[in-house]
Amino acid sequence: MKRLAIIKTALVLSAMLANAQALADDDPAFNVHGYLQGAASYWNLNSSSAANPENIMGLPTSMGAVQGDATFSVERDASKFVLQLDGKAAKNEAAYPVKAFQLFASTATADGSWFFQIGKFIPNWGVGQLWNPVRELTSERRKDLIFPNDAIEGIRVAEVQYVIDVKSSVSALFLPGGDGENSGLALRLSSAFDDFDYALSAFSDARGGHKFGLEWSWVAGPATLLGEVTASNGSTATVVAADGTQQARSPGYRSSYVFGTNFALPENMQFMAEYYHDSDAFSQSEFNSFSANLPADSALLNPLGNGRDTVFASLSKRIARHHTTLTASAFHNFQSALSLYQARATTELASQLDLDVVAGHYAVAADHASVSLFRNTLDLRLRWNY
Amino acid sequence: MKALFLGCILAGLSALANAIDVDADKSLARANTYMNYKNAVTNMHMQVLHDEEVETEYEMRVQKLDSDHMRIEFTAPQREKGRKLLRTGDKMFMFLPDLGKSIVISARQSFLGSSFSNGDLLRTDLVADYDPTYLRDESLGGTNAEVLELRAKRADVTYDRIVMWIDKASKRPLRQEFFTLSGKRIKYIEYRHPKHFGELEVNSELFVQSDLNRHESTLLTISAHTVGSILPVALFQKDSFAR
User: Fold this and answer.
1) Chain B within 8 Å of A252 (Cβ-Cβ)?
2) How many CB atoms lie within 10 A of CB B168?
3) Taking CA B91 as the corner, what is the angle to CA B86 and CA B94, rounded to the nearest 5 degrees?
4) B136 close to A (CB below 8 A)
5) Tens-place pLDDT, residues A26-52
6) What is the bridge-based pairing of β-strands B53-66 and A196-205?
């Protein structure tokens, strides 16, 4: 009987050891992943564009690029080292040799309550899917609203985070600045009250500017409501006066905010909408001055309209077959009366090989001067993930 | 005739006795215990099927602090590597590694285009979300089962109504069918192949078939499961789960 009990115990311990080993073996310490991508863009120009009459900018009607991205990571216990390299060779588009999008090291205490990270990376702030005024506190560079899920370059920062409990944490970011980045100190406190999540943040930069932020999200069944609000006095935006001169925006606190919702619908469909007010962009009178002085001020042009208030809405459907997603979306900027309508399809052509096709149409209200550079666009991307 | 009449009376009394004997709350609680462990780490393999052929496959590591806190990290394929999901209380988040940010997701959304919803995998505490009622006993695949009807306690729960088959002897979940408020069945899950991992027994296969699209189904397989090591709370905090 005793021998049987010993054998049984040994068998159980062996099984537990094998199970634990299986779990450990599934988590390699060294990892490389990334993608190679070919992109082609075609468009017809807006012949009545106030910003580019008769194509004085000399814009081409197509662009092409090949891009490579590789992320190397090494992990041991709670410590991690990450290097993400990205490089692009392009025709008629800004190219760059290989650069580090992210390069950082991190570690944490054994219980995970204290976390330290230093290097170049993207601080995980904000709740908006498209716009994050709270992340602008730390001058994050967002590449392209047409491809919002593209990898983006990090900023130089050191972060210390303390997890108070499962609901709350506090973070401090130290930004050294340089290369066009802000320098200063940012603090963030996040917590939750039932289904309501919120975070408060503050940033003080070396020039004496201050930015404050509030972000929140609330889940109600299939719907999520979210928002971000910021107040800052350090704007470096340029505006166009009525006489056509460019000048820095007057000092003082301004507020930017985004409100949005996501709604899960049947049949794997999802609706998303966001409204963004960018205090650095043009009011209606400022936009009128800007458009009246085109093409002289075309260097200030934002392809999605320079006005302060923009709405975005999209309806997407995910089909498991071939990882396919179909999306219809629209932007509208109120001050410029510019709209962009898009249809998008992403699908897997073969294992790890994805095709992304985006067709766009720019339109402007009949009683507004058109500042858009384009009429119709077509973007094709072929990406191999490894 | 008299014998037939007495036989019917006895059968009715027997059914009534069975019904009285079944405590739906206790049955659901025991089945819930079978499905939910604290401080659990599980490796899963998910196959999204179209006409029974594998369309897509995923490898995941699932860490569960308790019924309210769960974390899923994708380890394969490469496209999804680094993506993480978090459930904390009634909220769910997805971390997108390329963007370095988290987005809020809904329990009712499809889990990566599979026939599972996010709630199926992240919200598994049926006692917290549903009120059970005993319906009947039934034989399911040769196993004596209790059939319970589960009604949602709140509007934000994943499903309005579930019918659940539970092994009468072991209280192991066998099958669930999911219904809308209007009574339309939208899918079912079969729990298969109970397997021991150490001293723990779990259903090692979950198969879900969509009624809305009969071509679509999903198979989830558990390859490893451990319980016991205390998991760091920081893993389940919204701002640190993406580390």
Assistant:
1) no
2) 19
3) 40
4) no
5) 455 788 888 899 999 999 988 888 888
6) unpaired
Contact B98 A149 (CB under 8 A): yes
Interatomic CA distance for residues B31 and B221, integer angstroms: 19
Cβ–Cβ gap A197/B91 under 8 Å: yes
SS (H, E, C) chain A: CHHHHHHHHHHHHHHHHHHHHHHHHCCCCEEEEEEEEEEEEEEEECCCCCCCHHHCCCCCCEEEEEEEEEEEEEEECCEEEEEEEEEEEEECCCCEEEEEEEEEEEEECCCCCEEEEEEEECCCCCCCCCCCCCHHHHCCCCCCCCCCCCCCCCEEEEEEEEECCCCCEEEEEEEEEECCEEEEEEEEEEEEECCEEEEEEEEEECCCCEEEEEEEEEEECCEEEEEEEEEECCCCCEEECCCCCEEECCCCCEEEEEEEEEEEECCCEEEEEEEEECCCCECHHHHHHHHHCCCCCHHHCCCCCCECEEEEEEEEEEECHHHEEEEEEEEEECCCCEEEEEEEEEEEEECCEEEEEEEEEEEECCCCCCCCCEEEEEEEEEEEEC
| A19/B212 Cβ within 8 A | no
ipTM: 0.74
CB neighbours of residue A72 within 10 Å? 15
**Cβ B243–A80 below 8 Å, yes or no?**
yes
Q: What is the pTM assigned to this prediction?
A: 0.82
> What distance in Å separates residue B231's CA from the closest CA in chain A?
8
Q: Which of A157, A167, A162, A159 is nearest to A112 (CA)?
A: A162
Place of tokens 């716009």: A131
Distance CA A90, CA A102 (A): 22
Q: Do B98 and A22 touch (CB under 8 A)?
A: no
Question: Residues 6 or more apart from A163 whose CB is under 8 A from it?
Answer: A112, A113, A114, A115, A169, B233, B234, B237, B239, B240
Nearest Cα residue to B60 out of B50, B80, B75: B75
Instruction: Give me the tens of pLDDT residue by residue for chain B, a chain 243 residues long.
Output: 666 666 566 555 555 544 455 789 999 999 998 888 889 999 999 999 988 898 889 999 999 999 889 999 998 887 788 889 999 887 888 887 766 677 778 777 788 878 888 888 888 889 989 999 999 999 998 999 999 999 999 877 888 899 999 999 999 999 999 998 888 999 999 999 999 998 888 999 999 998 988 888 999 999 999 988 888 888 898 888 777
The answer to whether residue B106 neighbours chain A at the CB level (below 8 Å) is yes
**Mutation for A interface: B41, B54, B78, B197, most A CBs within 10 A:** B78
